[in-house]
């Protein structure tokens, strides 16, 4: 078998899902998907036994090269780095059936935790846990011994927390965000203190392109002070919408009719534990 144009439509959602989880960037992922198929067409092999594994191998290694390259070193990034928000509409465009993209591995909280992993740990964890490849298949994809892949997977699992279950219940999280918005608009600090964890951390991603906190903000008092300060500076034509971002409710803020920022949340045990404000214009979805 060889890769055909029909395979592009068939496997594109799968490859996008893999690449986005590895890179946290829509633009980079789309580039890697295109490059994967271009490379597959150029090689034009007719002895491919498993197209899915073959294309995932090319995609994974392209992403690994990108992650390990100089341009992707996070220490060069100004301030905290948040994954690029993905509008739910974008996901539907890629995969209307939603059979490929699992919601659990797409939350901003999960993607941000992936940053604690090395490139190889990230690839092996995804290939094994999300895409259900066997260790022998993973070993072939990333060119490592099978026993080594098992050890790397175990190490990766120990580095990240599990984001699943009730913490990803959309309706419950939406009700908490609605309460948060209502309390914030009324400047009801007491209500906000109930909704936000004492140890809440806010990650503000401006990427050096716009003004943003260059370090994580910790504690309810400091986070609320920052949010109130931001609100006081907003112009009159400011407005917001609660939208589905990465399969979770998020606040999309508009200024002058354009998306200014996206506020995503990690909610656990009915309290907001982390807030991710993405303001870097290069990461914002198109309105």
Automatic annotation (TrEMBL):
User: Which Gene Ontology BP annotations are present?
Assistant: DNA-templated transcription initiation
Which SUPFAM superfamilies does this entry report, sorted A to Z? NTF2-like, Sigma2 domain of RNA polymerase sigma factors, Sigma3 and sigma4 domains of RNA polymerase sigma factors
A Gene Ontology molecular function term for this protein is:
sigma factor activity
Q: Where is the RNA polymerase sigma factor 70 region 4 type domain?
A: 109-160
- Domain of life, per UniProt, equals Bacteria
Pfam annotation, one family: Sigma70_r2
Domain RNA polymerase sigma-70 region stretches: 8-71
- Subunit structure, as described in the record: Interacts transiently with the RNA polymerase catalytic core formed by RpoA, RpoB, RpoC and RpoZ (2 alpha, 1 beta, 1 beta' and 1 omega subunit) to form the RNA polymerase holoenzyme that can initiate transcription.
- What name is this protein filed under? RNA polymerase sigma-70 factor
Taxonomy of origin reads: Bacteria, Bacillati, Bacillota, Bacilli, Bacillales
């Amino acid at each position: 078998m060889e890769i055909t144009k029909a395979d592009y439509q068939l496997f594109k959602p799968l490859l996008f899902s893999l690449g986005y989880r590895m890179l946290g960037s829509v633009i980079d992922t789309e580039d890697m998907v295109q490059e994967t198929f271009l490379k597959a067409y150029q090689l034009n092999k007719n002895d491919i036994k498993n197209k899915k594994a073959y294309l995932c191998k090319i995609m994974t290694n392209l992403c690994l090269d990108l992650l390990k390259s100089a341009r992707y070193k996070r220490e060069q990034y100004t301030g905290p780095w948040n994954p690029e928000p993905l509008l739910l509409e974008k996901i539907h465009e890629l995969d209307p059936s939603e059979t490929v993209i699992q919601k659990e591995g797409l939350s901003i909280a999960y993607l941000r935790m992936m940053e604690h992993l090395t490139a190889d740990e990230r690839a092996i964890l995804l290939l094994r846990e999300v895409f259900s490849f066997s260790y022998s298949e993973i070993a072939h994809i990333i060119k490592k011994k099978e026993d080594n892949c098992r050890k790397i997977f175990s190490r990766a699992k120990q580095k990240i927390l599990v984001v699943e279950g009730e913490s990803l219940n959309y309706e419950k999280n939406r009700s908490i965000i609605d309460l948060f918005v209502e309390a914030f608009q009324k400047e009801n600090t007491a209500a906000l203190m109930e909704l936000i964890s004492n140890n809440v951390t806010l990650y503000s991603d401006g990427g050096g392109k716009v003004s943003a906190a260059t370090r994580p903000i910790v504690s309810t008092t400091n986070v609320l002070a920052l949010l109130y300060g931001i609100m006081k500076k907003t112009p009159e034509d400011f407005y917001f919408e609660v939208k589905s971002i990465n399969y979770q409710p998020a606040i999309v803020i508009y200024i002058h009719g354009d998306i200014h920022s996206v506020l995503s949340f990690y909610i656990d045990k009915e309290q907001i534990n982390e807030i991710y404000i993405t303001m870097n214009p290069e990461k914002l979805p198109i309105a």
